User: What shape does this take?
Amino acid sequence: MMKFRFRRQGTDPQREKIKQELFAFNKTVEHGFPHQPSALAFDPKLELMAIGTKSGAIKVYGSPGVEFTGLHADTTAVTQIHFLPGQGRLLSLLDDNTLHLWELVAGAPRDAGGAKREGVVCLEEVDCYSLPGRPGIESCSATRVTVLLLMRSGDLLCVGTEGGGVYFLELPRLSLKESQTLLQDQIIQSLPDDYRCGKSLGPVESLQEHPQRPGKLLIGYSRGLVVLWESTSRRVEQLFLGKQQLESLVWERSGNLFVSSHNDGGYSVWAVTTGNNVIHQPVSSTIPYGPFPCKAINKILWRTTQTGSPVVLYSGGMPRASYGDRHCLTIQQDKEHVTLDFTSRVIDFFTVHGVEQDEEFDEPSAVVVLLEEELVVMDLRTPGWPSLPTPYLAPLHSSAITCSFHVSGVPPKLWERLANAGRAQQGRQPAHGSWPICGGKNLAPPPKNQELLLTGHEDGTVRFWDASGVALTPLYKLSTANVFHTDCDPSDDPQDPSDDPDMQQEEEWPPFRKVGCFDPYSDDPRLAIQKISLCKYSNKLVVAGTAGQVIVLGLSDERSAHPVDVSVVDLLQDREGFTWKGHDRLEPRLKPASFPPGFQPLVLVQCVPPASVTAVALHAEWNLISFGTSHGFGLFDYHRRNAVLARCTLHPNDSLAMEGPLSRVKSLKKSLRQSFRRIRKSRVSGKKRPVATPTSKVQEANAALAEQEDVAPIQRRIEPRSADDSLSGVVRCLCFADTFLRDGTHHGATLWAGTNSGSVYAYALEVPGVGSGRACERGAGEGGVCVEAVLGKEIQLMHRAPVVSICVLDGRGKPLPDPYEASQDLAIAPDMANAHSVLIASEEQLKVSAKTKFKLTAHEGCRVRRVALVAFGSVAQEDYCEHTLVCLTNLGDMHLFSIPGLRPQVRYDCIRKEDISGIASCVFTKNGQGFYLISPSEYERFSLSAKTLTEPLCSVQLDRPLHATPASDSTATTTPPQANGTHKNHVGQAEGRSEESPSALSSPILDTPLDSPLSCADLTLDSTGEITVEDVRDFLTTVDEAENNLKNIKEEEGRSTGILIN
Assistant: This one.
């Protein structure tokens, strides 16, 4: 039979316009704490704070929602930042010895919340400068910058160098004023003979301007010399002959004295007098934590108060032998003395205090401490100096993030109860405390819906974050450790020594106080959270961990003490020949335990063997949970406290699954043997074999594909997966659905499971009161009736590609609503009159029916890592919405497909293909946004929707007129630079509004990436697997079939998809 090839139809302009109104890719904001911070600055007039990082990023923060991000051209560490107070300008010094000037500039008006927002500003680099080398000196180290000082006049910058010279630059032009340059030789000539000794003074360590007399500079050299320099007359006014290596200097507000800190752990107070030009000794000198050798005091601040006793703050100074490894900041005032003990290194700190000249005292209100892993703010007005909760910049990685889950459209009642539980956890509130960094104005409209981001952590905690806006704010923290016996019992509260009378009797010196929440250490790695699922309507939460523990929790507003029911589910089903060699299960508490308000455990389901849970599903309306491990999956009725189903998915040769992730007994010989087998298989399958005598269907497919390469070059050869590969029984996804499984007329509850070896299991469930069959006839009143599960169908995908997700579509081709949504009229009821279809996504292929499929690996050469069903709204028509399948691949790009036709829509490059952890951590929202980790402490937020966008829109009132950005840079306000310096901006795809040309939309067939073992937030699909074909022919696509995959299915909305399983 002759085959005719038809030319592919051209693009439909109307459809292209609709796609532009639906889809647009933007990286919008970075949530969390900046990775590897290296510099800190504060503008007391604008009340803005800036943080620089080792990757060359600058982030400016004000009140919650006010954020600006800038990125240097080179990913070089930022060593210093300084604001030009009130001007909206800041200077950055990089590790490559270059100075950069940044400005807040006016951006183009933006559409937000249906209204034009004027006055939006963004951060932009306007100039850079590098000090020239000194004549006759080959090495540039002499002009390497060590310290910067902005004069109060705002038009002069003092630059101290490693060679001991001080240079002066005019601002904001960054031009060198050579006539004012001060070299070390001029200072040495003024020194007494006995102090010179032929030695160099060393680098300039500190520059401080006199607080009362402008133009007078205090210059501190590393050797210990401090010089009071009169810049107008260019002469040395006073010399302070220090003998200890200098670390930092600070003026007292009146200018009558200054304080110097040194590398021996001490600080000295020097008096500035008019009678004596050379001062040999300080007024006082003390080593606070002596007399034994101490570490250097890196920085010291001296703030005056009305009480007469200054507040002294300094970092370092700990005794070397006993506490040399501590990261500390000391606060002293009169007899009050506190040593703040942090879990990460102190980068820098500043105080928030009065800076107006007519004010007599500093009166510090807060101290802000930038640490390597978090930001800590202490309230200095409240007795006891408590810490203030941070509305943003919270350390997401206080314990390492292991999984995440997103919930959109949170009901107000649930939100209020979670907020109350979170406030109860914080305990005593500061009396006067308010967030001191409150500059700028947030122009973004208030969120229409509340959004939750749940993160699971290595220490067994689940943290709830307010993800509704730009600022990711901590809301509530749940700990699962108190359900088990661990080495460190949380109920003992070992971290609160104030309640222990013995601890109170012996006063510890130094007086340490643990501050901050960053704690990288886990008491037991088995506590780590692997999967989370939350029902926002019933307030039920399921949390699953590394040791096979699955905990069902309910929300309570009162503290309670009760035992937790424990049920053990054996997934091996007494199968012989398997011996678990991994970690033991966690020992549950059998006695009643006290649980604070919030989510409290109801029942603990323990999988045996205690392998890590790889998939979980919750259907609160049916009171059912399903869970899977590397050995199989189970179904549990948490209302009746009984196990409904346990199914083993292990292959007879799958012995690696019995060793567990924490096992140390894996056989090196076996691993090498398996690796060599894979290499041999790949070599053999890559050779061309005679088509006449194929030994398998896979070889037939590959041979036929090789013959057709000149006809269909876009297809790629698919390597077969061995049936005895290790970990083939891992359950990758679970899904509940009310659909047709037994026949086409009676629908009912079903459970779907997909495995790593391409197996799909479909179970019909008998749930009292659910469905149109026999279960409904029983009535919901029979409380004693148990749920039953009967295997309805078992499918083996031919190429054994892991199943990433399974989802059932109704008669209109739309995803089924979440539990309670249909029964409580919270969503449009599903179409139960027409036949349903099942959407199965594997690593290699997307498939709805035998004729509706898209072979992603064959066409794109990539593998699916994450899948989600998303509702995209139109920016042009308020009531128009399309359900779309979003697919993230192992190459880091996003593919969008229409459903149920699986027609490719657009493709966007999102994540670098080398960023495996970022791909693995990606989580989607139901409205077209997503999150992924760009560092251990930061989430990148992105949007695929042209309508739904969460990005900073802010303004700042400056002392100077705002300059507008050039037209070519107008997208700077839309697509902020990536702070970790690793992501490229997508020109042409950033704006994504209707004015975007059709060419800006990427072709759907180009690249493909994905790699992620996180849970797929707020969806019934748990994206972590892959799917392939029922038949080998699915991998051998003819040209007609390939064109059909790309062709638009015209009757998408009205067609009948046939029986659920073919």
In short: The mean pLDDT is 82.
